[in-house]
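In this section we walk through a basic example: taking a raw amino acid sequence and producing a predicted 3D structure, encoded as C-alpha cells. The instruction is simple. Fold the sequence below.
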Amino acid sequence: MINPQFNTPKTITVSQLNYYVKSLLDGDMNLNAVFVTGEISNLVDHYKSGHIYLSLKDEKSVIKAVMFAGNAKRLQFAPQNGMKVIVCGRVTVYEPTGQYQLYIETMQPDGVGALALAYEQLKDKLDKKGYFDKERKKPIPKFPKTVGVITSPTGAAVQDIKTILTRRFSGINIVMAPVLVQGDSAPQQLVSALKKMDENHLADVIIIGRGGGSIEDLWAFNSEALADAIFACKTPVISAVGHETDFTICDFVSDLRAPTPSAAAELAVPDKKELLSYYASQHQYLSSLAEAKLNRCKSDLSLYSASLNPKRFSAVFSDCQKKLSVAKEKLSAYSAESINSYTNKLSSAASHLEALNPLSVLKRGYGLIQKDDNMVSSVKELKQGDLLTLTLSDGAVNAKVTE
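The resulting C-alpha cell sequence is shown next.
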C-alpha cells in the first residue's frame, strides 16, 4: 500500500494483511455460496467437538476445508477418504494462520444419494457386527397369547394388523404402542416403545412397522439406535415396513421380516379355522387308528384263547414229554459211550506208562549201579576200591570194587 502524502510504501501488520484479504473474499458474492466437487482426503473427524476437517482435491489442485458441528450433524452419511462429493459453502481466510479455505455448509455424495449411501454404510457396519446372523434370530411362538404392535395409530397399517389378528385368532390380546413413524423424533419413539414393551414383558411377539412410502418416509426404520434396540430385545420381533419391495435396516435385524404389515399379522398368529379343521381331521385319523388297533387286539386274543384250550394244552404237553424222553435216552447213551471211550484210553495209557517204569525192569533181575550218585554204564568208569550203590527191585546195597 502507498502513502499518498509521501509517495512511499505504507507498512502494515500481518494481521492487517490477513484481514484485508479476508474482507476481499468475504465481499465477493461469487465466493459466498460456491458449489465445489472433489475427492475427500486428509479427513479428520473431531468427535468431541463435532467439527470435520478435510481437504478437497482433483487431478491438479487441493483446498483445505472445514465443516462445523452445526452443519455436520445434519449429514445423512459418513464422509470417508477417497469419496467424491459435491459441497456448498463459502471461501474465506482463517486470519490467525492466513490459510485460505472452504467453509462447507452442505455436502452430498457425487453420483449417489446421501440416504442411499448412509443406508449401505450402516448395513455394512451392522452386518460386520453380526446383527444379521441367522443363528441369533429367535423363533416366533406358534401360539402367542399377546401380540404387541408398534406403529402409527392413524395409518392404514394398524387397522390391517388388528383386523387380520382378530380374524385369524379371535380372542388374541393386542397391546398397542402408538408412535410416530417418520420425522426427526420417530426413531426415538420407536426405540422407547420397543424397550418398554420388552422390559415389561407385555407381549409374546412384537410387530413393528408402517405402510409404504419413499426412502425418506421410511428412514426412521434405518436408525442405528433402533437396530441396537431390536438386537438387544428378548421378545421376538417381526418387522413389517412398507411394501414387499421395500427393505430397511429394521428388516435385517428383526427375527422375521414380513413383506407388508398385513403379512406380519398372518405370520404372528395361526388361523383358528385352519387349526380346528386340522385337529378335526387328526381326531378322525386317531379314531380310525384306535379302532383298527382294537380289532387287531381282539383277533390276537381269540387266537391266544384257542391255543390255551385244555385239550390243545394236554396234547402239546404230551408231545413235549415224548420229546423229553427221547432226548434223555440219547443223552444217557452218549454219556455211557463217552465214559467207555475215556476208560479204554486211560487203561492204554497206564499200560504204556507201566512198561516205561524202571521198577518193572528191576523186577526182571536187572539193577542200577551208581558211583558218587552218578549212573555207571561201563566198567571203564570203575577202578579198584571204588564204592558203589546197587539198586534192585526191593532195595539198595553198598559194594566195593576189589579187582
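Looking at the output, two observations stand out. Residues 310-355 form the longest helix (46 residues). DSSP finds eleven helices and 16 strands in the chain. In the next section we compare this with other chains.
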